[in-house]
Design brief:
By secondary structure, the protein is α+β, with helices and mostly antiparallel strands. It has one domain (10-185). The protein has six helices and five strands, in the order βααβαβββααα. The radius of gyration is 19 Å and the shape is flat. A hairpin with a 2-residue loop joins β4 and β5 (109-123). The protein is 47% helix and 25% strand. It has helices spanning 14-27, 31-35, 59-76, 124-140, 148-151, 157-185; strands at 10-11, 50-56, 79-86, 92-106, 109-123.
Length: 186
């Protein structure tokens, strides 16, 4: 089934917002001062406060779609950033950050503001890996674990999940190479 348009955007759960702010505040003393716009609504400046995930069949589709969305957001004047994420934990996706102007209702008054929205773009296999491993990631998030603590322990679930994420990224690349070699022979 082909979907037209972006999948629905979802808001970050309140508990996750609180946890993320707390983690950032522990690492950076001045983060809390910058986390909220002075005189603005009490909405934290988090890159993934509102987000969606777009799934592409092949890895070259991720780059293609991210470039198109980047160019469109730039043209519309709402682009904040684009990142190509490749982490030691085996997470691979591209993120497009855009801002959306909104009105907040507080004490029966509307106030203008902006919310940062994140569009994650990844392959089908990377998304399946992310969905399967996310509970593990959540359980260790915020802990400053040294990669050497799991890199040499094949029985550790982090070893399995993180290395499998890298293997899937490699397999995504091989699939594109195979598809392209078939086209060249035809």
């Amino acid at each position: 089934m082909i979907q037209i348009g972006l999948p629905p955007f979802v808001s970050k759960p309140e508990g996750s917002i609180r946890d993320k702010l707390f983690r950032h505040c522990k690492r950076k003393d001045d983060y809390i001062r910058k986390a909220f716009e002075p005189g603005g609504p009490p909405i934290p400046r988090l890159g993934d406060l509102v987000r969606t995930r777009v799934v592409c069949r092949y890895i070259d589709g991720v780059e293609f779609l991210a470039t198109k969305l980047f160019d469109l957001a730039k043209e519309m004047g709402c682009l904040l950033d684009r990142t190509r994420e490749g982490r030691i934990t085996g997470y691979f996706a591209q993120h497009i950050m855009v801002h959306q102007e909104v009105f907040y209702r507080m004490a029966s008054q509307s106030r203008p503001g902006k919310v940062v929205c994140e569009i994650q773009i990844a392959t089908q296999m990377a998304t399946q890996m992310w969905e399967a491993a996310h509970p593990l990631y959540e359980s260790v998030r915020g802990e400053e674990a040294d990669p050497e603590e799991w890199q040499w322990k094949p029985d550790d679930p982090q070893f399995i999940a993180n290395q499998l994420g890298h293997m899937i990224h490699l397999a995504d690349g091989f699939l594109v190479q195979l598809r392209q070699s078939r086209k060249r022979k035809a």
